[in-house]
């Protein structure tokens, strides 16, 4: 059967984190999905993990890989768009573990001309190191536990309130602003809308900004609304050292904004 959702996981090494993600995906309440691992040049451990775990999951997995030649994440994201079998795409990073209703929330709140923007809990280094497969399998990681709450009070884990899931329409009207702001690790959109802007801009060759702000701006030029699904589509971001943005990304993004170029030249198609 054709899947309803394609979940794209952007990865670069971090095998332990990807194993956590696969365990969380086994628990998804929404089951009509495929997974594409968009691998920006990891070592053989990622492939070995996928082959080991493939027989134990109910969802199909595609592993797309190219050689490590610096930051080329957007190239892999475009490869994932081309390879996807569904008409609706959800994007996460390989260091973000999804709640069991993560895909259900993206699917049930999708909009014809909208981009859904989720949030994340930023787990501290200590709690990330203490996380176990059992925490994922039991769903214990999904809840705002006292340990997580206290860690947040000490300013170790950040945005711990984002672990709260609010489904009541009335409560959401009171506490959630309708307009969203994109995070590259938690958003979803129709495939055809990405195709209309020629996908991700492959001119971004450094981390920091590019796969999120740029895509949101160009979709906005198309008339796509940024829709907040805060307190839904919960995910836990696992700790890693901070990645600083590069100046060349900043200048490229400023050029895109100034020229209002909706269709990038180097994306799903090369338009030079």
Describe the structure.
- The strands form two sheets. Strands 3-2-1-4-8-6-9 form a seven-stranded mixed sheet, with helices on both faces. Strands 5-10-7 form a three-stranded mixed sheet.
- It starts with a strand and ends in a 13-residue tail after the last helix.
- Helix 1 (15-25) runs parallel beside helix 2 (44-53).
- The protein has helices at 15-25, 44-53, 73-83, 102-108, 125-130, 133-138, 146-153, 169-175, 191-196, 213-221, 247-259, and strands at 5-11, 33-39, 61-65, 88-93, 96-98, 114-117, 121-122, 186-190, 225-228, 235-237.
- Strand 2, helix 2 (44-53) and strand 3 (61-65) form a beta-alpha-beta unit.
- It is of the alpha/beta class and 272 residues long.
- The mean pLDDT is 93.
